Amino acid sequence: MLLQGLVHAAAALLILAGAQKVHDPLPLVRAARSVGLRFHWQLVRAVAAAEVGVGLAALVDGARWTALLVAASYAVFTGFVVAARLRGGVLASCGCFGKADVPATRTHALVTGAVALGALTGAPGALPLTAAAVVTTAAVAVTAYLVLAVLPLVQVR
Q1: Rounded to whole angstroms, how far apart are CA atoms 18 and 8?
Q2: Interhelix angle 41-60/64-87, nearest 10 degrees
């Protein structure tokens, strides 16, 4: 049940993050440029639309192949965060969670890496969205959002 919730939560976050980048691809274009990658904003928008599609497919279908696509998406995100940190790029927001300037952190890399591994093992077959799965999904999605988008903005005094 927990891994099912993890896959669904990861899918929900893909939809949210992808929709933000479809709406405004420029933060990701700038983040990519800061580490030496050149992506046209139209390519970013197309990939973001695919990200939304992967998330929707995982929520609707819940089959192993959709969990693998979710895992692959998060593995790519993790690779980008690690590359940005190693190359010393401008670690400003990629636009996944709106306009707030949320830099990529080690925690970001750890969370997205853990989500990739969880999604890789989390859907052995078709997993419908049951009431319990919806609650678990919501809890995991909110927690991941708070860790990735809100916690980096909190200043400890």
Answers
A1: 15
A2: 140
Q: Do 125 and 64 touch, CB atoms closer than 8 A?
A: yes
| Integer Cα distance of 115 and 88 in angstroms | 24
Closest CA to 147 of 4, 1, 9, 5: 9
Dist. CA 11–CA 58, nearest whole Å: 6
Q: How many Å is the maximal CA-CA distance in the chain? A: 47
Question: Side chain identity at 95, as an amino acid letter?
Answer: G
**What tens-digit pLDDT sequence spans the chain (157 residues)?**
556 677 888 888 899 889 988 999 888 888 888 778 888 999 999 999 999 999 999 888 878 888 899 999 999 989 988 888 887 765 556 666 555 556 677 877 888 888 888 888 766 554 555 666 666 666 666 666 666 665 555 554 4
Asked if 72 and 50 count as a contact pair (C-beta separation under 8 A), the reply is: no
| CB-based burial label for 27 (10 Å; 0-12, 13-18, 19+) | buried
The CA-to-CA distance between both ends of the chain, in Å, stands at 38
